[in-house]
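Supplementary Note 3. Input sequence used for the single-chain structure prediction.
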Amino acid sequence: MELIFTATTLAMVGAIYFVFQHLRSPSAQCRKQISDWLARFEAASQIEQHEMAEVLVRQSAELASQMGVEVYLDELLEGGDPVELIRTWQAQLPIAIPSHALPKTPARTIGALLLIRDVQPESFRELLGQAVAA
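The predicted structure, written as discrete structure tokens, is reproduced below.
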């Protein structure tokens, strides 16, 4: 009886751990450098890409809000796929952000700056000026 209880407890703890790790993983990826995040994004399956894009866009919007710019994701995405927004960001990245800032910057920070650029271009220029000067 004691063995069954111990085995059940260990199985439950293991299952909770793996579920927690799985749920936490995309969030942790957003704190990685943008180049690492994009490499993982490109290597991911379509479902994983959608999940990664959703998490990055959500975390980027939260960070933009902390920077003083409200981003309304429903209006921005207009029912569209967040993966398409990420693809747009990929195309615009070399133009929007100085290349020397990219390797060291977390993915969610780049995402926040690009969201701010879409919503309030003047704030984007101010923030980017501060980032380049620093």
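The two ends are 64 Å apart (CA to CA). The chain has a mean pLDDT of 84.
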